[in-house]
Amino acid sequence: MGIHEDISEILYTEEQLTATVKSLGESISRDYADKNLLLVSVLKGSVVFMADLMRAIHVPCAIDFLAVSSYGGSTSTSGEVRVLKDLDGPLEDKDLLIVEDILDSGVTLSFLMKMLSARHPRSIRICTLLDKPHRRRVPLQADYAGLTCPDEFIVGYGLDYDEKYRNLPYIGVLKPAIYSDSDSK
Ligand code: IMP
Ligand code: MG
User: I want to staple 171 with a disulfide (CB 3.0 to 4.6 A). Which of 101, 128, 151, 156 is the partner?
Assistant: First the structure.
């Protein structure tokens, strides 16, 4: 069975995603021309976005990765965040830009903002590809946001359901039948 068959609707095509990432890259390049940019990708969801975004940025930058616990087999957050992999180095002279796939309840990013601010980077901002503003449980806004998306569970371009569908080149809505069984358990 192919992964495309589990998608009920394509929300953002490859072309739309490319255009969005290009425009985010241009804004970031403009704002960070004379800074010491460190892109921090939040694994694993942002890995596809990160790979494209860094190539849309044309000022010097370094990259690092963080891993936090995810939803697992569910489609809504448990409210708890756990660090599974921390950054490689200190942040004192860095202009940090956290790169996330999607800003949903805001729980993950507000936790990370607090944790990373405490390490005294020179500056700290958030770049998210997708924003679900109506789902917010903690007040938080991204400094750079690509697309505002509807309140639906979406997959592809790095976003997963139960670790699958990250390799879809577009973003789509998963057929409810795929997850309704496991969520009702
Ligand atoms: P938050 O802590 O609720 O803001 O959740 C952020 C994380 O939840 C993201 O990095 C995603 O991994 C995951 N997430 C939120 N909404 C979706 C979705 O619609 N599809 C897949 N993953 C999602
Ligand atoms: Mg996830």
Answer: 156
